[in-house]
Write the structure tokens for this entry.
Amino acid sequence: MNISRRFFQIADETLSSVDSKAQRVFAGYSPWPQKSKDLYGTYYYKEVRKTEAGFFLGYLLLDKDHRYLNALPPECFFFVFVHPVSRPLHRKLVRNKDGLFAQWQRQLGEQRSGVAEFHLLRDRLPALYSKHSLHGVPTSEVSLTSRRFFHDSLRQVVVIGIPQRLASSLEGGSHGS
């Protein structure tokens, strides 16, 4: 699927408009702009003991390497990750059936009150993710639809304290319950 230049203009304007909120939500995480053929947005991450963990806020542009997501690009895409998946911290937080990510998925499901619905993948980089397809959305509605999704995703992770709990887990703090 070809994505128009206009889409990227809208994406840049939209991401710029949610950037200040994202910076507050992810205070203490380093931003890293990502503009690849697959992802267009910003990673917010911390690195501890050869493991990176954090968030991605932006767009999924291609489904080639992401077929397991059943994506219909372009999609608004938000996810929480621990990388690489082979590290002990990933096993503890993501793969463990009682791990922090499983707890967050349950809590997000219980408090769901917006457009973002979160899913858990125990063996992939987008461990806890939410997406919303913009395929077929009129160009005039892309910005509003995207903003609503991003603000809702951020609100939901803030309500249950995911950024702080993930940071605490990285620093060797409690299990984050």
